[in-house]
Specification:
CATH superfamily of the largest domain in chain B: FAD/NAD(P)-binding domain
Radius of gyration of chain B: 29 Å
Number of helices of chain B: 15
Helix content of chain A: 40-55%
CATH topology of chain A: Rossmann fold
Number of strands of chain B: 28
Number of domains of chain A: 1
CATH architecture of chain A: 3-Layer(aba) Sandwich
Oligomer: heterodimer
Distance between the termini of chain B: 21 Å
Strand order of the largest sheet of chain A: 2-1-3-4
Bound molecules: flavin-adenine dinucleotide, iron/sulfur cluster
Number of helices of chain A: 5
Strand content of chain B: 25-35%
Helix content of chain B: 25-40%
Structural class of chain A: alpha/beta
CATH class of chain A: Alpha Beta
Strand order of the largest sheet of chain B: 8-7-6-12-23
Radius of gyration of chain A: 15 Å
CATH class of the largest domain in chain B: Alpha Beta
CATH architecture of the largest domain in chain B: 3-Layer(bba) Sandwich
Structural class of chain B: alpha/beta
Chain lengths: 138, 557
C-alpha cells in the first residue's frame, strides 16, 4: 500500500459539460475505479480550453493534461470540438519539440461512455507512470 | 472573501472513503475560510438550515458545497443562497462523491484528493462575480415526438393539464407498435383498443394538434421557447414549444441479421411480431411440432446487443400458450438462456405455461435449417451438455427490441445523447431517468431502452409530469453564461468574430472593437480561448476561475 501512496502521476483533465463530464459522473455512479491522481475540471465546451491552461497545469506540476470533448459531429455547440482539435494538435506539435507529447492527450468521450472515459484516463496514467519509472531507473 | 465550506457525508457514500472530519478541519486553517463544517446530508432540511444560518451568522460571500456532482440538486442550493440574500452565482459545487469517494478506495489518497478538489473550487470561487439570472417567459406548449403508447400518454397528460400539445408522428396512423399487438400481456386486451381509447380522447381535445406522416426538421432555441419546424408532406409549419418529450419508440429486431436463422427464406420460420400482426403461419398438422426461440436479437454479443429486451420472454410464453390453446396435442418446445419473466405476475405465468405441457430446453439454437419434412434446429443443451437436433413444423422467433435508426438524426437535431446501443441516454441512470442533459427535453418509453407497455405508459406520464411542472411555472431562469468584451483590451483583430459558431460577435466599425449579441451567444467560450488579447471572456468560466482551479488541484495539501 505504502508504495502505492508514493506520488503517482498527477493528471489534470478538462472535460466538456455535455459529454465527458457526464461520462465521468456516470463512471462515479457505477463505482468504476481510476487512480486518485486524475482530477477533472468542468468546462462548458472543450473549445473553452485555452492552450495557456494546459501550459499552466504543466508549469504547476501536472505530469499530464487531457482535454476531452464530444465526438466529432456531436458537439453541443455545433463544431466547437473541431477548433479544439486544431488547437490541441498545434500544441502537441510544440510539446513534441520538447519530447513531452505524451503529457498531453485529446479524447472524444460521449456522455454514454463511462467505460471509455475510465479506460482513456487509466491508460494515460499508466503510460505516464511507466515513463517516469523508466526515467527513475536510468 | 468570506467563504463557508460545507462538506457532505452523503450518509456513508462519501464518508466511507473520505475522512470528512479531517477535510473540514483542514479548511479551517485556510485564509478567507470563515467556517468549514461537515454534515451527514447537506441537502436535507437540517443540512440546508446549517448553510442558511452560517451565511447569515458569518456574513458569508462565498459558499462552497462539497457533495454530489453539480448536476444534482443544482437549483436547491442556489435557492438557499438567494434566500439568504447572496447572489446564487457565488456558490461553488465540488463533486467529492462521483469524482472522488466512489471512484477510489484508498482513504488516505481520497482524503487528499477531496482536499485538493475543494481547494480548487475555493480558489476558483474567490474570483466569482455576482451575475444576474435572466428570466424568460415560458411558452405553455410542448412538442411530443412519436405517437406510440408512450408519446400518447405523455401528450394526453400534458393536454389534460392545459398545455398546448404538438404531436408529431412519422407514420400515417398513431399508436406505434402496440396497435399491431393482438393480445397485450397481462391484460389480454387488443393493442388497438388500448391505444384507440387514448387516440380518441386526444382527438377530442382542442389544445392538441396532431401531425401524422410528419417529421421534425428544424430545432433551435432554449427551454421555454424552442423553435420547431415540422414538415408534413410538402408543407412546413413553425411552432414554439416550451419543452419536448421524445417518444420515438423502438424497431423490432430483424432476425435476417443472423443468417444462420434463415428468417425470411422459409414461411415456416416466423417472428412473434409477425404473428401479433396477424400474419398467418402456413397450415399446420393437427399435432404440430412448434419451436420457440427466446432472446432473438437480445443478450447476443456476437451482434453487439448485450442488453435484455424485457418483453420477449413473456412474448415467448404468450405464444406458447396460444399454440397450446389452439392445438392441445401439439408438441411445443421453448429454447432459452434463462427465462426472465420479470413483470409482475411473470413468474406465475411461466409456471402456468409449463403446466400446460410446454417443454423448456436451456441452450440457444445454433442454426435453423429448412428441409422438406420440417425445419431442423441444431444447438447445445447447456443443462445436459448434449448437442440436439430436432425437426419442427413451425419455428417462432421471439424477437427483441432494437433502437430506431432514426434516433441518430433526432439526437443530432435536439443535441441529446444516445447510449452505446442507440437508445436515448437519461441525464442520470437513477436520479434523473426521464431527463436528458438538455433542459426541458425529456425522453419517454422504449426510445430510451426496451420497455413493455405498462412501463412505456408510466415513463410517458412521468416525463410529462416533470415537463408540466417546468412549463406551468410560466417562467424560467437562463444561466447568464455568455461572453463579454472589455473594449479597453480589445485590439479589434476580429479573430473571435471569425471563430464564433453562433455568429454572435459583431464588429463595431466606428469604435474598432467587437461586441457580443447576448441573445445569440451560446456560451461555449470558444472566443475566450481564441482571443490573443484576453479581451473577451465567458461569464461563469473566466480565465481566472479556471486558472486558479488548476492551481488548487495541484497544490500540496
Ligand atoms: C412482438 C412484440 C410483442 C409485444 N407484446 C407485449 C405485451 O404483450 N405486453 C406489453 O406490455 N408489451 C408488449 N410489447 C412491447 C410494446 O410493443 C412496447 O412496450 C410499446 O410499443 C412501446 O411504446 P413506445 O411508444 O415507446 O414505442 P412505439 O410503439 O415504437 O411507438 C413509437 C412511435 O413513434 C413514431 N416515431 C418514431 N420515430 C419518429 C420520428 N423521428 N418522428 C415522429 N415519429 C416517430 C413511430 O412511428 C411510432 O408510432 C411487445 C413488443 C413486441 C415487439
Ligand atoms: S479576438 Fe479579442 S482582441 Fe480580437 S476582436 Fe475579439 S475580443 Fe477583440
Ligand atoms: S461564447 Fe461561443 S457563442 Fe458566445 S460569443 Fe463566444 S464563441 Fe460565440
Amino acid at each position: 500500500m505504502e508504495e502505492n501512496r508514493d506520488k503517482g502521476p498527477e493528471i489534470v483533465g478538462f472535460a466538456c459539460s455535455y459529454c465527458t463530464f457526464k461520462a465521468s459522473e456516470m463512471a462515479g455512479s457505477l463505482r468504476m475505479k481510476y487512480p486518485e491522481g486524475i482530477r477533472v475540471i468542468q468546462v462548458p465546451c472543450s473549445s473553452r480550453v485555452d492552450p495557456a491552461f494546459v501550459i499552466k497545469a504543466i508549469l504547476e506540476g501536472a505530469d499530464g493534461v487531457f482535454v476531452a470533448g464530444c465526438h466529432p459531429g456531436d458537439c453541443h455547440f455545433i463544431k466547437g470540438n473541431f477548433f479544439t482539435r486544431r488547437k490541441i494538435a498545434a500544441l502537441k506539435e510544440m510539446f513534441k519539440a520538447f519530447s513531452m507529447d505524451g503529457r498531453l492527450k485529446l479524447f472524444w468521450v460521449s456522455a454514454a461512455e463511462a467505460r471509455r472515459f475510465v479506460d482513456k484516463v487509466t491508460t494515460m496514467y499508466k503510460e505516464l507512470k511507466e515513463e517516469r519509472d523508466a526515467g527513475k531507473k536510468n | 472573501m468570506r467563504a463557508g465550506i460545507f462538506i457532505c457525508h452523503c450518509g456513508h457514500n462519501i464518508k466511507h472513503t473520505v475522512d470528512v472530519r479531517r477535510v473540514s478541519e483542514y479548511f479551517r486553517k485556510i485564509p478567507g475560510v470563515i467556517v468549514s463544517t461537515d454534515y451527514a446530508f447537506v441537502c436535507s432540511e437540517p443540512g440546508q438550515d446549517i448553510i442558511v444560518e452560517s451565511i447569515k451568522r458569518y456574513n458569508l460571500d462565498r459558499v462552497v458545497i462539497a457533495s454530489c456532482t453539480p448536476s444534482l440538486h443544482g437549483d436547491l442550493f442556489k435557492d438557499l443562497l438567494k434566500k439568504s440574500g447572496v447572489n446564487p452565482f457565488l456558490l461553488r459545487r465540488v463533486s467529492i462523491r462521483e469524482h472522488c469517494s466512489w471512484v477510489g478506495d484508498d482513504v488516505e489518497l481520497n482524503t487528499e484528493k477531496a482536499k485538493r478538489l475543494i481547494l480548487a473550487g475555493l480558489y476558483s470561487a474567490s474570483h466569482y462575480i455576482p451575475l444576474e439570472e435572466k428570466m424568460v417567459e415560458v411558452e405553455k406548449s410542448a412538442l411530443v415526438i412519436g405517437g406510440g403508447v408512450s408519446g400518447l400518454s405523455a401528450a394526453l397528460f400534458l393536454a389534460r393539464m392545459g398545455i398546448k400539445v404538438y404531436l408529431v408522428e412519422k407514420e400515417a396512423e398513431l399508436g406505434g407498435h402496440v396497435r399491431f399487438l393482438g393480445n397485450i400481456w397481462p391484460s389480454g386486451r387488443k393493442g388497438r383498443d388500448i391505444v384507440g381509447e387514448m387516440i380518441e380522447e386526444l382527438k377530442g381535445l382542442t389544445n392538441v394538434e396532431i401531425f401524422t406522416e410528419a417529421e421534425v426538421t428544424g430545432f433551435e432555441g432554449f427551454f421555454g421557447n424552442y423553435g420547431v419546424t415540422i414538415r408534413q408532406s410538402d408543407r412546413e409549419r413553425k411552432v414554439i414549444a416550451g419543452g419536448v418529450v421524445v417518444a420515438s419508440g423502438f424497431v423490432p429486431f430483424d432476425p435476417a441479421i443472423k443468417p444462420e436463422l434463415n428468417y425470411g427464406k422459409d414461411q415456416r420460420i416466423v417472428t412473434t411480431f409477425d404473428l401479433e400482426r396477424g400474419i398467418e403461419p402456413p397450415d399446420l398438422p393437427d399435432r404440430p411440432r412448434v419451436a420457440i426461440l427466446h432472446c432473438v436479437g437480445s443478450r447476443d454479443e456476437a451482434i453487439g446487443k448485450s442488453y435484455c429486451s424485457r418483453v420477449c420472454c413473456v412474448n415467448a410464453l404468450k405464444v406458447a400458450e396460444t399454440i397450446k390453446g389452439r392445438y392441445p396435442d401439439s408438441y411445443v418446445e421453448s429454447f432459452y438462456m434463462d427465462v426472465r419473466a420479470h413483470p409482475r405476475g411473470g413468474e406465475e405465468y411461466f409456471e402456468a405455461v409449463q403446466e400446460r405441457g410446454v417443454l423448456f430446453t436451456r441452450g440457444n439454437v445454433g442454426e435453423i435449417v429448412p428441409s422438406e419434412s420440417g425445419v431442423i434446429l441444431r444447438g447445445e443443451d447447456t443443462l445436459f451438455g448434449e448437442v440436439y437436433e430436432r425437426e419442427f413444423d413451425l419455428v417462432i422467433l421471439s424477437i427483441g427490441m432494437a433502437s430506431s435508426p432514426g434516433n441518430r438524426t433526432l439526437a443530432q437535431l435536439l443535441k441529446i445523447t444516445l447510449d452505446k446501443d442507440g437508445f436515448f441516454l437519461e441525464a442520470h441512470i437513477k436520479l434523473r431517468p426521464y431527463d436528458t442533459a438538455v433542459k426541458g427535453i425529456f425522453i419517454a418509453g422504449s426510445c430510451s431502452g426496451p420497455k413493455d407497455t405498462e412501463e412505456s405508459i408510466n415513463h410517458g406520464r412521468a416525463s410529462a409530469l416533470k415537463l408540466f411542472g417546468m412549463l406551468n411555472l410560466g417562467y424560467a431562469f437562463v444561466d447568464p453564461f455568455i461572453s463579454w468584451v472589455d473594449p479597453k483590451r480589445c485590439s479589434g483583430c476580429r479573430q473571435c468574430e471569425e471563430a464564433c459558431i453562433a455568429k454572435a460577435i459583431k464588429f463595431d466599425e466606428a469604435k474598432r472593437v467587437v461586441k457580443v449579441e447576448e441573445a445569440a451567444c451560446m456560451g461555449c467560450g470558444l472566443c475566450n480561448a481564441t482571443c490573443p488579447s484576453s479581451a473577451i471572456t465567458l461569464k461563469g468560466y473566466m480565465d481566472s476561475f479556471i486558472g486558479d482551479e488548476i492551481s488548487g488541484l495541484l497544490e500540496v495539501v
